[in-house]
């Protein structure tokens, strides 16, 4: 049930028709339950949405449904309480580099990444951007020189994160390394913190931080995108044109990820609105991204109260 799905469609099958639901019934003799929890997911950002997403790097509709169910259950005891964004989220950046100096991100660029996060989450990149209330403060930068960890991060990620992780559920851990061709970054989700606290955090290709030289992706918005996942948001193209989309009411449906900056694209014509190409939770180039919506802002505040406060 939780096999890899690309941009809301199952690989090898045609897209769901507009308005189709993602749930299905079990075939006769098929074992398992549609209600069983899917394994922990990680939401990746890639530079080419037409290329294969790394295994486990995209949520299936069932995984997204499971995360949303756990989210709604966690909100039940919080009913009637005022929910607010934290004043400042402490950030620990773990810079992993090679012995020859590759990936040794200068401190100035680390600080620039924090500034990008604060501008993005305050709505400072466009007139249509919501101020989410979230602000980020760099509390520590660790530096590790290890050729194997730098070039093969994904292979050793569990060990690396277990050894380097700092703080609790409310501390954002960011790891930078070389992630290979096409992969820009990925993140854990808040629902998984309790089960694996030392694996919580965001992983970024070192050249996606501001000034890193990654063509089309060096303004720091891979960080913005992945922190959005860390706070509970799905991709804008989650579930494609099928309900419930990305589970946010004010982000229009989108059949598949955007590439470049195709403003005015409408890949779900039976649904209201053009594709959310400039939303931070898309795959558009960094220079195209401008905002989170008010609905996304509410959702991350609620996720914070449910899992990270």
Automatic annotation (TrEMBL):
Residues 1-62 are annotated as: Disordered. InterPro entries: MetalloPept_cat_dom_sf, Peptidase_M43. CDD domains: ZnMc_pappalysin_like. It comes from the Bacteria. Keywords: Disulfide bond, Hydrolase, Metal-binding, Metalloprotease, Protease, Signal, Zinc. It holds the Pfam family Peptidase_M43. One of its GO terms (molecular function) is metallopeptidase activity. Residues 221-302 form the Peptidase M43 pregnancy-associated plasma-A domain. Belongs to the peptidase M43B family. This is Zinc metalloprotease. It comes from Nocardiopsis tropica.
């Amino acid at each position: 049930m939780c096999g890899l799905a690309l941009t809301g469609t199952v690989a090898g099958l045609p897209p769901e028709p507009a308005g189709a639901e993602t749930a299905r019934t079990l075939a006769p003799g098929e074992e398992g339950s549609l209600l069983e929890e899917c394994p922990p997911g990680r939401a990746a950002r890639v530079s080419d949405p037409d290329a294969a997403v790394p295994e486990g790097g995209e949520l299936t509709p069932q995984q997204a449904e499971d995360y949303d169910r756990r989210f709604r259950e966690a909100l039940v005891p919080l009913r009637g309480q005022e929910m607010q964004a934290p004043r400042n989220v402490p950030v620990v950046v773990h810079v992993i580099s090679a012995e020859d100096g590759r990936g040794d991100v200068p401190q100035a660029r680390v600080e620039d990444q924090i500034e990008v996060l604060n501008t993005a989450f305050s709505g400072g990149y466009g007139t249509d951007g919501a101020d989410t209330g979230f602000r980020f403060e760099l509390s520590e930068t660790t530096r590790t020189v290890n050729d194997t960890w730098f070039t093969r991060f994904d292979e050793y990620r569990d060990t690396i994160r277990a050894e380097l992780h700092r703080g609790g559920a409310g501390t954002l851990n960011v790891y930078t390394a070389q992630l290979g061709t096409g992969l820009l970054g990925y993140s854990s989700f808040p629902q998984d913190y309790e089960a694996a606290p030392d694996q919580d955090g965001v992983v970024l290709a070192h050249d996606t931080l501001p000034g890193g030289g990654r063509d089309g992706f060096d303004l720091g918005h891979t960080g913005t995108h992945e922190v959005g996942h860390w706070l509970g948001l799905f991709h804008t193209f989650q579930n494609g044109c099928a309900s419930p989309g990305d589970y946010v009411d004010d982000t229009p449906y989108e059949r598949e990820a955007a590439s470049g900056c195709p403003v005015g694209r409408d890949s779900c014509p039976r649904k209201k609105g053009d594709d959310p190409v400039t939303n931070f939770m898309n795959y558009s180039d960094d220079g195209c991204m401008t905002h989170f919506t008010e609905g996304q802002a509410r959702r991350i505040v609620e996720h914070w109260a449910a899992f990270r406060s």
